[in-house]
Amino acid sequence: MTRVDFYILKDTGDAACALFACRLTEKAVQQGHQVYINTESAAQLLQLDDLLWTFRAGSFLPHAVDNEEDHGDSPVLLAHDRDPRDSHDVLVNLSNEVPPFFSRFNRVVELAGGNDTQRTGARNRYRFYKDRGYTLNTHEIS
Prior knowledge:
Elements: E1 3-9, H1 16-30, E2 35-39, H2 42-54, E3 64-65, E4 76-80, E5 90-93, E6 107-112, H3 116-131, E7 136-141
Parallel strand pairs: 1-6, 1-7, 2-4, 2-5, 3-4, 5-6
């Protein structure tokens, strides 16, 4: 069964979720995982596309956008409103909705930012997974 982890961020800044997603993705890739990042919008996808190259001094996190014809063996794929073709390892969901394909992944990462809108969306997603019997893990990040 898919493992679902919620990360509760104390930071209320606009970029907090995106920056944490980059840090978490970097850690997962270093551990040999393939990561599929599902974004809330096309604008957020572009933001992450840039941020994955610059989020930390000296960072280099190879990635591709899943709508590109040839993304090779990139360990990180970014997508918005797109059903993944081959990714079945780690899903980082930045959307306010639970993606219909989440259960194909071994692990789902959900982020809850510090503002009310993000918290409300996270609570709804938490309820969705809980109602379907998934074991939920919660991590508070300061």
